[in-house]
Amino acid sequence: MTKLHKGSCLCRGIEYTAEGPLRSVIACHCTQCRKQSGHYFAATNVPDERLSITGFQNLKWYHASDDAKRGFCKKCGSTLFWKHSNDPFTSVLAGSLDGETGLTIEKHIFCADKGDYYEITDGLPQYP
């Protein structure tokens, strides 16, 4: 049986289902992720053909660069997705998943941009 992972925004105006296994979580400390979330992003991803989204009328995409966009709920402001233009998958914010995920953080990226108010002390790989 294929595992289904369900998630949503805070107001549940957008709900999604990700079918099958999910990638380990990657923590992104880049300036854009910190500005959008108030801290850093922690995201898994799912191939586009295995991601089902309902509530499209509430989904707003912000084109943060020429190469990527960020999806959020225009009702409650919850950040849910990150999508690179050329990738066949969508990153899903781990905190938007419902219930236990069984996921773990694999690594930290864009650590050179991290905020000065915290340290990364979990011993996982860090990339500038």
Provide a short characterization of the protein structure.
It contains 1 helix and 10 strands.
Task: Name some characteristics of this structure.
single chain, 128 residues, mainly beta, seven-stranded mixed β-sheet, three-stranded antiparallel β-sheet, 1 helix, 5% helix, globular
From the alpha carbons, calculate the radius of gyration and give it in angstroms. 14 Å
The coarse silhouette is: globular
Classify the secondary structure makeup into a structural class: mainly beta
- Helix amount, in percent? under 10%
Task: Walk me through this protein's architecture.
The protein has 128 residues and is mainly β. The chain is 5% helix and 40% strand. It is built from 1 helix and 10 strands; from the N terminus they run βββαβββββββ. The strands form 2 sheets. A 7-stranded mixed beta sheet has the order 6-7-8-9-4-3-10. A 3-stranded antiparallel beta sheet has the order 1-2-5, with no helix packed on it. β7 and β8 form a beta hairpin.
Question: What's the topology here?
Answer:
Elements: E1 4-8, E2 15-19, E3 25-28, H1 31-37, E4 41-47, E5 51-54, E6 59-62, E7 68-73, E8 79-84, E9 89-93, E10 105-109
Parallel strand pairs: 3-10
Antiparallel strand pairs: 1-2, 2-5, 3-4, 4-9, 6-7, 7-8, 8-9
